[in-house]
Amino acid sequence: MKSIFLSAGLGLAVVTAPAAAMDKPAVAFFVNGTLGDKSFFDSAQRGMDRLASDLGLETRTVEAGFDPTRWESGMIDLADSGEYDIIITGTFTMVSYVEQMAQEFPEIKFILFDGIVDYAKCGCENVHSLLFKQNEASYLAGALAGTLTTTDSDGLNPEETIGFVGGMDIPVINDFLVGYQAGAQSVLPDVNILSQYANNFGDPAIGKEMALAQYSQNADIVFQVAGGTGQGVLEAAADEGRLAIGVDSDQAAIFMESNPEIANRIVTSVMKNVDNALVSAMERHLKGENIFGFPEAQGLETGGVGLAINDITKKYVSEDTLDMLDELSAKIVDGSIEVPTAF
């Protein structure tokens, strides 16, 4: 498949690479959750794997679980061990912890993905905030969904209705939604967009319940931006013979071996390529470029986000629609289309 732009002891060390040369930093990934979401954290872990295999860095991943009362002590233990030069963590929920840790451990560098510290408040000259223009790739997903929703084939109905299930009602999730809405309305101005928030990133049962409700209201396609909760949306698509849009990784490719029935209902995925972004940032750091002390945002132009185009996509989407998506990508990159954002 391919894609186009379009406290020590708290967690489990799941990846440990051989010791690297002394002049290379040791890097730890603190997961404020668990791996296995087939989405966001797994994408970041692929980046950690590449830091070890491609760049020869010593790496470790710690899974802290979903209880936020354990995150602060876990981060402190990791930093206080003195074993790591760089600590990577992600999501908006870790911003305050990174702001605190950056001041308490100025000798350690931090990379925060999918969140941004308040540089004016904390200084944080040892923090690199890595953001993504998820609204851009979501615009493409919306255009695809808007094109497909009037199709009367393979379980789809002619009603102009699509759906969205978000993990929480927060800016980063809403950035997916506003891009998705704009893209769908660009091809189908009167499209009906159902949206709900699970207020949870780790409960597939809630995601499935919400998706089933939207399918019952004639939604052909439901876009899930809900981490582990979103797996329930994908299950509902398979159960109901409808379509879903995955997130963060090419989820059709991930499910193809373990559950092809689900994979064949994921028409595309809005990819947030955390792995590419982490490797790019580390490569630049190793070359001597100063990436710390300020944020950066990666979008379609840099490959930080994209839309998965694979054999399953091509089963449902015409060549004309694929050409349209390429044209929309180019217009977003050159500024001809300004995609709205929740930020």
Description:
The protein has helices at residues 40-53, 71-80, 95-104, 119-122, 134-148, 171-187, 204-216, 230-240, 251-258, 260-263, 274-286, 311-316, 319-334; strands spanning 2-4, 12-16, 26-31, 58-63, 86-90, 109-113, 127-132, 161-166, 192-197, 221-225, 243-248, 266-272, 295-298, 305-309. The protein is of the alpha/beta class. It folds into two domains: 2-132 and 274-298, Rossmann fold (3-Layer(aba) Sandwich), CATH 3.40.50; 134-271 and 310-334, Rossmann fold. A seven-stranded mixed sheet has the order 1-14-12-11-10-8-9, sandwiched between helices. Strands 2-4-3-5-6-7-13 form a seven-stranded mixed sheet, with helices on both faces. Helix 6 (171-187) links the parallel strand 8 and strand 9 (192-197). The radius of gyration is 20 Å and the shape is globular.
At a glance:
The protein has 343 residues and is an alpha/beta fold. Helix content is 41%, strand content 22%.
The CATH topology of the largest domain turns out to be: Rossmann fold
Q: What is the helical fraction, as a range of percent?
A: 40-55%
SSE succession: EEEHEHEHEHEHEHEHEHEHHEHEEHH
E-strand count: 14
Q: What structural class is derived from the secondary structure elements?
A: alpha/beta
Please describe the biggest sheet, giving its number of strands, its sense, and whether it closes into a barrel.
7 strands, mixed
List segments where confidence is low: pLDDT < 50 over at least 5 consecutive residues. 1-22
Number of helices: 13
**So, the CATH homologous superfamily of the largest domain?**
Response regulator
CATH class value of the largest domain: Alpha Beta
Query: What does the overall shape look like?
Result: globular
Q: What's the architecture of the largest domain in CATH terms?
A: 3-Layer(aba) Sandwich
β content, as a range? 15-25%
Termini Cα gap = 32 Å
Q: Average pLDDT, to the nearest integer?
A: 92
